[in-house]
Specification:
- This protein is α+β, with helices and mostly antiparallel strands.
- The chain has one domain (3-124): Nuclear Transport Factor 2, Chain: A (Roll).
- Helices cover 15% and strands 49% of the residues.
- The chain has two helices and six strands.
- A hairpin with a 2-residue loop joins β4 and β5 (98-113).
- The longest helix has 13 residues, at 9-21.
Length: 137
């Protein structure tokens, strides 16, 4: 393949963010293939979640996703084989019987492993109502 036609690291990470967040049909665990098996995700409560816990939660009846969409990528910085992103999403879901309609901000760290960018760490803010002002960056 010609180097001029290969996507840049920035393009690849933007694609991962979009693939993980744009989910109009509520497919559960859609972006899991972008997550490294050693990843850790910090929930809005501050509690860490391993990928084993993530898979268990996302494959349980406790979570129903109606839709999710990317609102904006607020910041993306890449240095060698590490990248940092901050992005905002809108999701409607049910968790343990409670409906949620949330605008949330995520921070994520990606690492290039064997030439492939993978999500390795993430944190989600507490959601806010879609009627509230969006966070400003």
């Amino acid at each position: 393949m010609n180097l001029a036609t290969q996507p840049s690291d920035e393009d690849m990470i933007q694609h991962i963010i979009q693939d993980m967040t744009n989910n109009p049909n509520g497919e559960k665990n859609k972006g899991r293939h972008h997550m490294n098996n050693d990843s850790v995700f910090i929930r809005p409560t501050g509690n860490p979640l391993t990928m084993e816990g993530w898979d268990e939660m996302m494959n349980s009846d406790n979570v129903t996703l109606n839709f999710s969409k990317l609102i904006s990528i607020n910041k993306l910085e890449i240095s060698n084989d590490m990248a940092f992103a901050c992005y905002t999403t809108h999701s409607q879901f049910n968790y343990k019987g409670t409906d949620n309609d949330d605008i949330a901000v995520f921070t994520a760290i990606y690492r290039k492993l064997d030439g492939v960018w993978k999500f390795v760490f993430g944190q989600r803010s507490t959601g806010r109502s879609p009627g509230e002002p969006l966070p400003k960056f």
